[in-house]
Amino acid sequence: MAPSPRHIWIGGYWGWEGGRHVWMGGRWELPPQNGQIWIEGRWVNEGGDWVFTPGYWSAPAAPPAPVYAPPPPQPVYAPPAEMSVNVAPPPPRYEATPPQPGPGYFWIAGSWHWDGRQHVWSPGRWEARRAGWVWVPAHWEAGPHHWRYRPGHWRAQ
Hints:
Elements: E1 8-10, E2 13-17, E3 20-24, E4 27-29, E5 37-39, E6 42-46, E7 49-53, E8 56-58, E9 83-85, E10 105-108, E11 111-114, E12 119-122, E13 125-128, E14 133-136, E15 139-142, E16 147-150, E17 153-156
Antiparallel strand pairs: 1-4, 2-3, 5-8, 6-7, 9-16, 10-13, 11-12, 14-17, 15-16
């Protein structure tokens, strides 16, 4: 539960510490000024290198100006790479879903990931809906001699 109606849930994320990815848990925070919104941090591939842009507080975006020209083409989304391992993932964990941060958000359930040595649980999170896109959940598929991981990703509708 939120400590107060003004608190905003800041979702967790995978950070980089000590030469490896580390899960940074979510937390409740008060906006520094009334009306500010939280912009989530994200990993971006810049010229083959993955760079993390931390989350930050921002004023709400101004409503877009009317557009009279044809809209630009939609970006092409490439889902993350798949992987195969010889070790079956553990059963899914039960997660208590924190309160929804707003009506435009939906819950993405946590899942097991492979860190190169073992299965590691990645907790669920609230994600803003994307118009024209649908979320495909992460999952593991059993093969004859391996388990194949299919990462969660956005897919154009």
